[in-house]
Amino acid sequence: QVQLAESGGGLVRAGDSRRLSCVASGRTAGYTFNTKVMGWFRQAPGKEREFVAAITWSDDRAFYADSVKGRFIISRESTENTVYLQMNNLKPEDTARYHCVLDTSYSGHYSSPSEYNAWGPGAQVTVSS
Question: Which of 28, 48, 65, 68 pairs as cysteine with 72 (C-beta 3.0–4.6 A)?
């Protein structure tokens, strides 16, 4: 199994920057996993879960939701199965719980929640005006 752990959330002010981190672990009793894509979703109260960003392991290609494009940057450290989300120029509408996701059987549907094998518990990001 794969476990994901997010960190870096908190309370920020509009215009601030914040970096989220997520580390995946899955080595138990000699078992390993093969990461193909990692990413981030977010969900605000009363809203549906929303794709934020994803990055592939094979070719380091990044994908972004229109709402964050130009402000957020996703990056990875493949040898450690770690993904980051650099959030710049944060806005109140970015307030949400951000969930890290990982997939070992990538089929190309990076923006679909059903694509992913593992989900982290989430990190809250609250942006005040």
Answer: 68
Over residues 16-63, the pLDDT tens digits come to 999 999 999 876 544 566 889 999 999 999 999 999 999 998 899 999
Inter-residue contact 65 to 45 (CB < 8 Å) = no
Question: DSSP of the chain, one letter per residue?
Answer: --EEEEE--EEEETT--EEEEEEEE--BTTB-----EEEEEEE-TTS--EEEEEEETTT--EEE-TTTTTTEEEEEEGGGTEEEEEE-S--GGG-EEEEEEEESS--S-TT-GGG-SEE---EEEEEE-
